[in-house]
Amino acid sequence: MAAPRKNGKQTVFFQSPPVIIAAASIVGAMEGDGPLGSYFDRVVYDTYYSEKTWEKAEQRMMLEAMRKALEKANLQEKDIDIMLAGDLLNQIITSSFTARALAVPFLGLYGACSTMCESMALGAMLIDGGFADRVLVGASSHYCTAERQYRFPIELGNQRPMTAQWTVTGAGAAVLAREGNGPVITHATIGKVVDFGQGDSQNMGAAMAPAAADTITCHLKDTARLPDYYDLIITGDLGAFGKRLAEQLVTQSGYDITERFSDCGILIYNAAQDVHAGGSGCGCSAVVICSYLINQLKAGKYKRLLVTGTGALLSPCSAQQGETVRGIGHAVVMEMR
Hints:
Elements: E1 6-7, E2 11-13, E3 19-28, H1 29-32, E4 42-44, H2 54-72, E5 82-86, H3 93-102, E6 106-108, H4 115-128, E7 134-141, H5 143-150, E8 166-167, E9 170-177, E10 184-189, H6 204-223, E11 232-235, H7 239-252, E12 261-263, H8 264-267, E13 279-280, H9 282-299, E14 304-313, H10 316-320, E15 326-335
Parallel strand pairs: 3-4, 5-6, 5-7, 8-13, 11-12, 11-14
Antiparallel strand pairs: 1-2, 2-10, 3-9, 7-9, 10-15, 14-15
Helix pairs in contact: 2-3, 6-7
């Protein structure tokens, strides 16, 4: 017997679409000075955020984003059934310390930069399946913590190639609920790990693009929809080079998304900020979704969005062993009804 909520090969639909009743975002200086600066709830200009380490600063940002989302929803920690969150640091320590402070049931996630959409997809499943009434979801990253974990210490001042992206300093959080006012999540498409043999940690857009294209194409096939069903099809953090590659791959699959395709990593910075290929990191899609995109849905500019979180499954361990960078993409459909 087929799963009753399965729609095609990799997509599920929600009979009672969960509502995004509140969202919040906190970002760093670079992000606050970018084109979307006015949409964020708070901009932090101190990379240490008055903490002793960058890791503690990132933890503080996620905790405050979570609490701000709860405040907007007029809820307290005790009202949350489950928290779903993840980050880029080893053993997702930002999320687990945040969960410790909130003292709510916690499921930690790691989907690299696709984690925000992964958390929204799983949160929607929990609510539509009758396992929770309210779920708190979120993700974060920090330029300084990610760079020294995955690449080089900041103090070295290594020159970055033009394919490199700037890890977003920021945290986004949202409250999903069975009932309430706000955009709803109607579908989720769970992506596959796709590997085109790209092993350059300074070119994550190329590693993620095939997975993003695969998920977008699969979603359109599963739902029998054409790209113009959506006002916007947007990826998490492919950057300029990755977006171009993903667009070409989707076109080869028979879908033209050119006129309605964008990327959070491109939207969050401007050319004058010299971030090379664009933004990346768990916080990239998290803060853009929890500020700009939800705002545009509520304002009526968009009615239907296909948001595909993109992640480069990069590990310092696997990179040192000469392994390639695998890509993953998870998509959610957000609608304003």
